[in-house]
Amino acid sequence: MRHITALLAWIAIGFPAFAVEKPNIIVIIADDLGYGDVSCYGAKAVKTPAIDKLASEGIRFTSGYCTASTCTPTRFSLLTGTYAFRQKDTGIAPPNGPAIIKPGTETLPSILKRAGYATAAVGKWHLGLGDPAPNWNGELKPGPLDIGFDHCFLLPTTNDRVPQVYVEDRQVRGLDPTDPLWVGDKKPSEDHPTGITHRDTLKMDWSHGHNQTIHNGISRIGFYTGGTKARFRDEDLADAWVNESNRWIEANKERPFFLYFASQDIHVPRVAHERFQGKSGLGPRGDCILQLDWAVGELMKTLDRLKIAENTLVLFCSDNGPVLDDGYKDDAVEKLGEHKPGGPFRGGKYSVWEGGTRTPFITRWKGRIQPAVSDKIVSTVDFSASFASLTGQTLSANGSLDSMNLLDAFLGQSEAKGRDYILQQDNGSGNFGIRSGDWKLVRLVKRMKTQARVSKDERPEPKGTHTLYKLTEDPGESRDVAESHPDVVKRLIGQMDSVVKSDRSRP
After folding, report:
1. pLDDT tens digits, residue range 255-292?
2. What is the torsional sign of CA 175, 96, 212, 123?
3. Which domains does the chain have, with CATH numbers?
C-alpha cells in the first residue's frame, strides 16, 4: 500500500518516488569499529559476510565519517544533527550523568515521528538519563522517550561503566524494589570488592583504569551495589538487542518505523557469547566483530522474513575508529597479527586523524539503491536533514544546526555531490581536523594523554599546531606539506574557524 501511495504522489507531482515515500529506516551503529575491521573494507584476518552482503546490495562509502572520535559526542550529533562541541558536557558521559539531549531539542526520531513513524532505540545509549542524575530505582526521566523515541531498551552507559542493567522505557528492567540499585563515584564501603582488591578473582584483567566495581568477573568504571536480579551477563547483550529489535519490528511492520540499533560491539570489555568465543583467531576483539556481523545478519533476515526489505533503508556506520588496548588485557594487541583495524589511515579512537572518524559506512535500500562504491564525503550528522527531506519534513530554524541534505548521495543518485568538507573533533579537547576535497588540516592544541593503544605502531604527534596532508597521495597522514602549501593552510584554517566559532554550519 505504501508503494502505491508513493507512486501516485510521483505521478501527481513529477518527483522521484523516493522523495515522497516513507520507507522504514534502520540505523545500525557499531562501537569502536575501524575502517579496516570488516572484510568488505579490506580485512583479511576476519570475515564479516553479513556486513559484506549489505555492502554488495547497496553503497559502500569510502569517505564516510562520524563526527567525533569518541562515543558520546558522535551519538549526540547523529541524533541531533548538531556538532557536539556546540553544547557543553558532551564528553564521555559518566555512569551517573544526566540526560545530555534535553527535551525540546529537535532530533532525528522527533523529525521522523512528525512524519508518522514509530520510533525505537535499542542497545547502547551513553547519552545520560534523568535530571540532575538518573533515578535508578524510579522513573528515568528525561530520557529517549522525551526526545522522540516511542520505545527504548538500553544499555544505559557503556559496558565498561556501571551499572550493568537494562533500561526499558523509563525504568530498570527486572529491578527488585527490595534490592535497590545504588550508583556512585566513591566506594560505598571499605570492604566493597574492586578490581584492585580482588584482582585475582577476575576472568578478564584490566590494564588501566577499569578497576572499580566487579561484575561478571570483570572490573568496571564506577561503583554500584544492589539490583542483583536486574543485572545482565555481558555474553548475552547481542542476543538481547537482536531479540528486542526483531520483536519491535514485527509489532510495527504495518507502519513506517525508525529503529536506532546501537550495538555495544566491539567496545571493551569485549565478551562475546560463548558460541563466538575463540572463533576469530584474533582474541575477544575479533570474536566480537563476528558477533556484530551476526547481529546485522539477524536483522536483515527479519526484514526478509517479513517481506519488508524492499521498503527499508538500512544504514550501517560506527561511532568512532578503532582502539586495541582500551583498559583490558584481552590480547587485542598480542593477537593482531597483520590485521589493520584502521585500514590505511592514521590514528583511531580519541584522535582527529582520519582513523578516528573515517569508518565503514554503508547504505542499502533494495530495489532503490543500485549497488556501488562511492567516494562522496558523507557524515552521520547529515541523517537529520537527509531523512527530513526523504519524508517531506522541514527542519526547525534552530535545530539540526550542522546537518546537510545528502539524500541523493545516500541513495546513490548519479548527480549527487556529497559534502564539500567535513569537520572532525575528538572528545572536546579543542583538537579538530577538517577535510576539504583532497586536503586535510589537523589542529592540535592539546596533546591527549591516554594509555589506550589504537595500533601496533603508533607515531608521535607532530609538534606544530597546524599540519596539512594531501589525502589522495598520503591517506596515512605521514607527510606534512603545510610549508609548501601556505594558501591551502590559510583557507582551511579560515574554514575551520568559521564553523567552530559560528553557531551553525547549515545554511
Report:
1. 999 999 999 999 999 999 999 999 999 999 999 999 99
2. positive
3. 23-171+234-357+377-410 (3.40.720.10), 421-501 (3.30.1120.10)
